Here is the input.
Amino acid sequence: MKNLQNKKILLVICGGIAAYKSLELIRILKKCSCQIKTILTEGGKEFITPLSISSLSNEKVYTDLFDFKNEAEMDHISLSRWADIILFAPATANKIAQLSNGLAEDLATTVALASDKMIFLAPAMNVRMWENKITKTNLKKLIGAGYKVIGPDIGEMACGEYGEGKFSDPLGISKIINSYFKELEENKNFKALITAGPTREYIDPVRFITNRSSGKQGYAIAEELQKNGFETTLISGPTNLKSPDGVRMLNVNSADEMYEKTIENLPVDVAIFTAAVSDFRAKQINIDKIKKEKFEKIEIVKTKDILDYTSKHNKLRPKLVIGFAAETSNLDKNSMKKLVEKNCDWIIANDVSNKEIGFDSEYNEVKIFQRNKPNIENISITTKEMIAKKLVEKISNELKANG
Here is the structure.
């Protein structure tokens, strides 16, 4: 498992009978040359000791949130920044509930809340607890927030019952984490470009033509690409959104500016055009504000079609060109037409007449239309972050499959 070499893993051991198996997990990860730091929760102390952990990890074991000897170090911040990933193993039903509700009740939950790294959960609990609807709801929230879940397995438990909820094999957990780092390393070979937000086509210094867009979906995709190892460039029109960490950010105003920045940053492996580029601009921009009484008509011309140009110029064309279609009617027909006319590989379409999704909403629901594939994929209503995760996973698989 060479992809684990020199990786920094923050292991959180929660209170459950499976806690003793975390010692085997530490042994395996150390054998793979990982650096391991550990948080042992109060419940975890009932099953294993800090001494047994430190003897294997060769590192200090962190326990209390407010350790007066180390308070100046702000452990909940320093640990979350130090780690490449955070792994809760075992993750109990109680800890999953705390995490899903954003609580910061101890060092473990505080670190998770302060973290910008991938967090893995390896659940272990009684089968009835695992099957409880509340546990399922909590897990769904965490998955939607980007957590990855490993297991649990099906088998006989310490309580004597049989079913799903058994802690996954430590070697199996290690292999899944190794695969995660392997995928990140492979994705570093890929370059991605995303356009997002609206453009502004000025008529005079105070008025402009625009299309409605918050930019949220494009920003979420850019952030997810970066998290998954892609070298990512985001070209954005005016929005109120924070630039995603680690993403190369290029801010523009007009369609012409977005066009120029797009061409300058080609070729890439995948180009994703989520921006709501204005279709028209004023033929001439007035230097001074036009007085209301003189504002009779504006002569307009079409803006440059960035998606069309990118997808039809073979020397610059990315391996994967993805367009977005915001429709209010005839979604399937209009999206298929755009797929063909723009020479795209995929069109991601959504119905912006639905007030629950699309413009300014935190949620979306999309259909994926693909060239030469009759089946239309659906991603049911969920957060824009989750839409981004599913799309990036699909993009990564597509690029790897096609070399």
User: Anything to note?
Assistant: The CA atoms of residues 10 and 37 lie 5 Å apart. The two ends are 23 Å apart (CA to CA). Residues 2-186 form a domain with the Rossmann fold fold (CATH 3.40.50.1950).
